[in-house]
Amino acid sequence: MTRSSRHRLAITFAAALLFLLLPLRAEAHLPTIGLGPVYDGIFHLLLSPEDLIPVIALALFAGQRGTGSSRRVLWILPVAWFAGGLTGMFIATPRASALTCLSFLLVGGLIAANAKLSLPLTTALAAILGFFHGCLNGSGINRFNDGAYFLLGLALSVFVVVALFTSFVIPLRRQWTLIVVRVAGSWVAASGLLMLGWALR
Amino acid sequence: MKASKEITTRFAITLLTLLLYAQAVEAHVHKGEAVSFLSGLKHPISGLDHVVAMIAVGLWGAQLGAPAIWVLPVAFPMVMAFGGMLGLLGVPLPGMEIGIAASAILLGAAVMMELRPPIALAATLVGFFAIFHGYAHGSELPPGESGLLYSLGFVMATGCLHAVGISIGLVHRWNWGQRWLRVAGAAITLAGIFFMWKVFA
Questions:
Q1: Each residue of B35-72: pLDDT tens digit?
Q2: B75 and chain A: CB distance < 8 Å anywhere?
Q3: Nearest beta carbon to residue A198 from set B6, B28, B147
Q4: Exposure string (b/e) for A39-71, b if CB count within 10 Å is 16 or more?
Q5: How many domains in chain A?
Q6: What is the enclosing helix (H) or strand (E) of A94?
Q7: Cα Rg, chain A, nearest whole Å
């Protein structure tokens, strides 16, 4: 290591140390201050397993079905989610936890069975699932004026999650890796069944 | 090489800075949510009767080879969750403890004798016992937990127990491994006899 690079590293280290020592206010109550509507939407998906898991599951299923289905789901799901959210903002939707479980069961079951769904059916599934979950989200945010920005953040994060997981599954070729995806689907379906029992309890 | 070392050092400093960066404290999580996943994860491994039966399923699957090695771990969580749903709904299932003990005896015996029934019969047998295990879990689920996170943890822990069984069962490719698997099957059968004795004692 040369003298100049050592010097640069020392400066970087000192800057990092100063940055760490910077006093920050502890903002412990994020639910009251929020992060702004777009970031709230993004984080809503990442922090809500009842929405995140169906998105991941649908991405895994689309990945199983190949590039064509994945490309279709990548665009249809966020758009349907956004449309459903806008609809949900204006109509009263009950918190249908039993119906949420059905989306787990349906998509998880399709992955576990490695169902050979056609492209139009996969598209319809993505549209219905996105619209339904979006509607549920939208009905919860209709009190806020900037709900559309929240939904925009939500749809963006749906897009990113689908892109990440489909691109993870599509290149899989080895038999055991394909089985791991199916096992993951069976776990999603099993969780859906248990949640259904929980909801109907 | 020097340049790559410098890049690595810079990367390490940045990573350390980010890790040590003061984050806002989210102290008030919803009731039960912080522990639900972990308590779900812990539940299947808290009882030895469940643990040995799940591992036996994995061992047997590994002995049987494809397609049983993946059919059993895909089917078991879904059938077990169905049993869990029955337990949650309070549907009566007589002889639950006997069914669980019998599962250890029979699955252990199948591993010990390296039985090779048709895949449909093996899946039916495993599925039948999965209902008893799921029912026991479902009827014991504590109130006040997040249903989804608990269910996820619970299903994932069961799946991981199967994976442990399958991983151990991979020694089946060697002669010494086949002998040790049979010994493990005998041990599981003995454990099952002990559980059965406890039921009637």
A1: 677 877 888 888 888 899 889 988 888 888 878 777 88
A2: yes
A3: B147
A4: ebbbbbbeeebbbbbbbbbbbbbbbbbeeebbe
A5: 1
A6: none
A7: 21
The structure tokens listed for A15 are: 């800057």
User: A183 vs B73: CB contact, 8 Å cut-off?
Assistant: yes
Q: Are A80 and A132 in contact (CB under 8 A)?
A: no
Concatenate the DSSP letters of all residues of B53-110 into one string.
Answer: HHHHHHHHHHHH-TTHHHHHHHHHHHHHHHHHHHHHHT---TTHHHHHHHHHHHHHHH
Residue B24 within any structural domain of the chain: no
Query: Is B16 inside a domain boundary?
Result: no
By Cβ distance, the residue of B74, B75, B84 closest to A194 is B84
B5 domain-assigned: no
pLDDT 10s digits, A182-197: 989 999 999 888 888 8
Q: Which residues contact A26 (CB under 8 A, 6 or more apart)?
A: B22, B24, B25
Residues 6+ apart with CB under 8 A from A104: A53, A54, A57, A188, A189, A191, A192, A195
**pLDDT at res. B34:** 44
